[in-house]
Amino acid sequence: MPVLRRAATARAVSAGEVFALIRAGAVSTRSEVRAATTLSRTAVAARVDALKTLGLVTEREEGASTGGRPPTLLRFDGAAGVVLAVAIGRSRTCLAIADLAGTVRAHCEVDLDGRAGPEELMADVTKRLEALVGESGHDLAEIRGVGLSLPGAVDQLRGASMNSPIMSGWDGIALAPYFAPLTAAPVVVDNDANVMALAEWRDGHRDVDDLLMLKLSTGLGAGIIAGGALRRGAVGAAGEFGHNKIAAAQGLPCRCGDTGCLEAIAGGWTLVRTLQQHGHTVGHIRDVVDLANRGEPEARRLLRDSGRHIGEVVAAAVNLLNPAVVVVGGDMARAYDFLVAGLRETLYGTATALATRALQVVPASHGDRSAVEGSVALILDRILSADAVDAALAGP
Questions:
Q1: Which Gene3D superfamilies does the entry mention (predicted)?
Q2: What confidence tens digit (pLDDT) does each residue in 226-242 have?
Q3: Nearest CA to 215 among 251, 239, 186?
Q4: Cβ distance 238 to 229 under 8 Å?
């Protein structure tokens, strides 16, 4: 059992920290809380009662009696509220409502184009979210927070897109105010590959502390879990590997305005353009994937070559970070076999033997829902953290 101990001169374990133990399933009775924290019986009672007042913890008799009263168990109440999740993409947006345990209760995908301006798109998003809340049997008063993911780098302090070539017109515009008609609850914004990494780590790879999530779609990005934590970098630009320079792309123009980027030869938008030039009717990387899965040779070749170029760049990240798992997600991953055949070839051929000796390369467990599931994880991490719970108990 984890034990939270404090030196004699340090502060006592807070109610938020007690909640974290209960939520993780590390303790389930008041006596176990006392053992894990060294708090007194009175202090434990005060913290548990405070958590019950917030509605985050229930306490009731469960199980069979061994001669006395049945044991009274502490449980995290995942039904104590809901969170909203929004994953905005280039050509579609995914919306979801989840309970506080992270279970998605309602979900939909809509053709809302991230290339539209925030005024137009966000008004539609909030309207559809309000309808989804009602359809799911909940009401707006139950909303505890909103998690939102965007393509490209994100300024988390401002809750805004930052220098994204996809999100033209969104740069620097705070997105939290758009949710004001729905809720005053916290809104947290992050990069789509980051939240996908959270979803895959929490739900599919809890046993590892080092994971690299590749989001391969119209653009290319990565989410990095290192040492058991999501790493965003100094200015939120960690994982933007799609704009690494690569010899094979020398002189090729990239949509970012530079030349020689990996995306210019391996990004989904490049594959779409190449097939269009060769007479194919495609408008999105999903169309390329569909062609490949139906047996079209050129689409298969392009995806395999894209995987080779991506693997060459990812090999450097594998050498640097030494992840246990590389997870492959995004629209291109729907043609996983063709794409990853190329990726494995250069990844294992270029990275060091030691870094790849036990490395796993696997498909995303959440598939197309990785970003919206990750947006759920993002907001839950914020509103159910020990600090957030303590702040809620402290009041305004």
A1: 3.30.420.40, Winged helix-like DNA-binding domain superfamily/Winged helix DNA-binding domain (1.10.10.10)
A2: 999 999 999 888 999 99
A3: 239
A4: no
Computed from CA positions of residues 179, 183, 184, 186, in that sequence, does the dihedral angle turn out positive or negative?
Answer: negative
Tokens describing residue 196: 């996908």
The helix/strand/coil state of 381 is helix
Write the pLDDT tens digit of every residue in 153-168. Answer: 899 899 999 877 777 7
9, pLDDT greater than 50: no
Residue-wise pLDDT tens digits, 269-298: 999 999 999 999 999 999 999 999 999 999
Could you tell me if 84 and 146 are in contact, meaning their C-beta atoms sit under 8 angstroms apart?
Answer: yes
Backbone φ, ψ for residue 56 (5° rounding): -85, -20
Rounded to 10°, the helix 386-394/41-54 angle is 80
Q: What is the mean pLDDT of the chain?
A: 92
Lowest mean pLDDT among 34-38, 110-114, 177-181: 110-114
Q: Which residue has the tokens 């502060």?
A: 11
**For residues 156 and 288, what is the distance between their CA atoms, to the nearest angstrom?**
33
What is the full DSSP assignment across 138-199? --GGGEEEEEEEESS-EETTTTEE-S-SSSTT-BT---GGGGTTT--S-EEEEEHHHHHHHH
Q: What are phi and psi of 120, to 5 degrees?
A: -75, -50
Contacts of 277 (CB under 8 A, 6+ apart): none
Average pLDDT over residues 209-215: 97
Q: Is residue 222 helix, strand or coil?
A: strand
Residue type, 68: G
Euclidean distance between CA atoms 171 and 150, whole angstroms: 11
CA 57 to CA 48: how far, in whole Å?
A: 8
- Dist CA 4 CA 257 (whole Å): 51
**Coil, helix or strand for 107?**
strand
Separation of alpha carbons 75 and 51, rounded Å? 11
Alpha helices in 192-335 (DSSP H): 192-204, 263-266, 268-277, 285-293, 297-321
And the tokens for 302? 């392009």
The neighbour count for residue 207, using CB atoms within 10 Å, is 7
